[in-house]
Amino acid sequence: MTSPRTLLDGLARLYPASDGPLRGSALLWAHGGGFVHGDLDMPEADAVARAFADRGATVVSVDYALVGDDGSRTFPAGSDDILTAWAWLVEHASEFGAERFFVGGTSAGGNLIAGAVLRLLGHAPGTASALPLPTGVFLAYPTLLAVQPAPDAELRAALDANPAADVFTPPAVLAMYETYLGGDVAQAPLSAVPGRATPADVAGFPPTIMVNGHVDELRVSGELFARTLADAGVDIDVSFEPGTTHGHLNRPEEPGFDRTIERVSGWMSRR
Predict the structure, then answer these.
(1) pTM (2 decimals)?
(2) How far apart are CA 56 and CA 13, in angstroms?
């Protein structure tokens, strides 16, 4: 793979495509980090981008705005950055031979991606609705609800058996969103809390693949959103990666990393 290069005054990093089954595809990618952490060098950004580029996709990894310790850069700052990078990718597609355009992200990055797609569909802030929709969407263990329902008995038992994995309790998730939004979540736009969407809200949402963590309380919000997509008639492929906890794409040494990349690459190649 040719060395990555920076774009948009450092907002994003471009990973040129190698030869592979995803040739002709481009992927806009957003790492996780709870809206306050993360950068382009973390494995969830760099290793994932390299994995897809090695399989033939041009990848644009976004260094979106994180909420500052002083409460600056709350929503929609990060969402705006995602859409700025998306507009660049669409505009420059011919430079790297891309004909199919995907967006994807992990955890908080998955929230930003789902929310950006809702903005492309016209939801507030609807400034991006003139841009085209992606060919497909990849959400990895996304957080999509500020007020998260309790897990079912099976997941609750798995979390109880692995206390180190039990980090996304409802109070912790609510606090994360209050930080992201800079205040109360009750009046948050749908594009900030995509899991609140109804089937009518997601009409026209692109085909989506979602891979959740196995022992991960965020599965609750991901699976709820997947059901909403299915109820709207969206082509949705939802699963969890067996044997994983939250964030397995940030741990490329684990077998779940390669399994997820291979599964999603196959799905992308069929679009």
Answers:
(1) 0.97
(2) 16
